[in-house]
Amino acid sequence: MQSYTVSKLLSRINNTLLPAADAHIHISDMSVQRGYGIFDFFKIIHNRPVFLKEHLDRFFASARAMRLHCPLSREALIQAIEELIQKNDLPQSGMRLTLTGGYAADGYSIHEPNLLLVQQPLQLTKELQPGIRLITHEHQRQLPHVKSIDYLMAVWLQPHIRQQEVADVLYHQQGIITECPRSNFFIVNKHNELVTPSLNILAGITRKKLLELAAGSMTVKEAPVTIADLREAKEAFVTSTTKHLLPVIQIDDITIADGHAGPVTSALFGELINMVFS
Amino acid sequence: MQSYTVSKLLSRINNTLLPAADAHIHISDMSVQRGYGIFDFFKIIHNRPVFLKEHLDRFFASARAMRLHCPLSREALIQAIEELIQKNDLPQSGMRLTLTGGYAADGYSIHEPNLLLVQQPLQLTKELQPGIRLITHEHQRQLPHVKSIDYLMAVWLQPHIRQQEVADVLYHQQGIITECPRSNFFIVNKHNELVTPSLNILAGITRKKLLELAAGSMTVKEAPVTIADLREAKEAFVTSTTKHLLPVIQIDDITIADGHAGPVTSALFGELINMVFS
Questions:
Q1: What ipTM did this prediction achieve?
Q2: Is residue B23 less than 8 Å (CB to CB) from chain A?
Q3: Is the pLDDT of residue B3 over 60?
Q4: Which CATH number is associated with domain A6-121?
């Protein structure tokens, strides 16, 4: 990645391409004023977007749910994405699409949204990583099916996460697990079934792909997972666009099985990496 | 207000004064990326900030709670506020102080915060307004004691509010009332006591002043208020920096008393206006 001069990358704000360093918006934008906006983020490998259809489906679904009208049609957005990828020529990277509430005259109501496209370098690994540790935290995201920019709680918890020397928090509501702030959560239960929460979560794209992959070889369930279930879990992992699949070996004081990534985790990681990099 | 050319107003971003129209920040700011920031807003009357001490107390308390280090000391901030007021010369106005999570290299962690000072025209009335109607909505703000920029739910509910032809929502959690998105809530109960919620709310400055004023003439309680309590309430109102005190005459299907502003509401409004404009 070092061979690319990131400072020469272009970003796009609405219909204007401009150097990433000059990508500014007016402070009356509803993201700055009221934390109001949505986004999506996808990988680019060999200069090709990965799972673009699914990310755009979710992006437009988030926009609709948040009552934000995207200034570009789906076709025009795809064209803008392709143009930016071509100009930046950063073969392995990530692109963030953000849609904000726009410049509200009253500082409070949705206006004509601003659309931001930012491409950036992205480090990815094809090796299964060591297992991470999590701590639970009781919290429910607002409009959880929407990929909104609201990460207030997640960012606020960062010092706590660092102090506890864990990788992330795992949100739950009264003991019912939902998700991590930026990844979906899975366990292999005592019956060797793959189980992931289905309610009050963001519908992750990697989650969706993983469920499809796993369904070929094991019983897959979208169903409630409780903190109590963790004590009997044989394996646990999280999935996300950038992390792909990361083993989880401890949650609070609960060690998952023997504290090492299990066989299902390893096998699914391999299948997922093959799919992503194919 | 029409005599002021708003487009000539200055704003301040960190240490730079610049025309309000040119007040931009880079889109990597944590407000745009993660909805992370705090603010405060105070009135300026006769070119003098109103209740500045209280607003600054809350501003710095919000910053501390959100782990944001203000780049200006309290004294330097007061100086910056006074300089902006002098240069803009907009005798009756509002000033918004915003402190964001800054330009995060990783797009996720708090960095050196950006401080934004924006002065704008402000319409205020000295006349008691007709009563407003509210609808309840079950929601609890994140870190409620913090004046964060998180208004996702409030903005999202705007079309619903308009459709219901009411002025605002009143948040509650399992029937226990907290606040409106931008104002505090009070009732006069059947025992002629003034009661306002004290838990899981923003500590409004007007709320605080009102409680002090009212304590001179009646029993004042900071205590839980339930939706059930509304049916027996003799009066209800909301308070805020811009609205001062606004009678509430209906909440969902509950008409407060006879549907008109009551004597306590009227008397307290008069006292508050006297204090603010003195």
A1: 0.95
A2: yes
A3: no
A4: 3.30.470.10
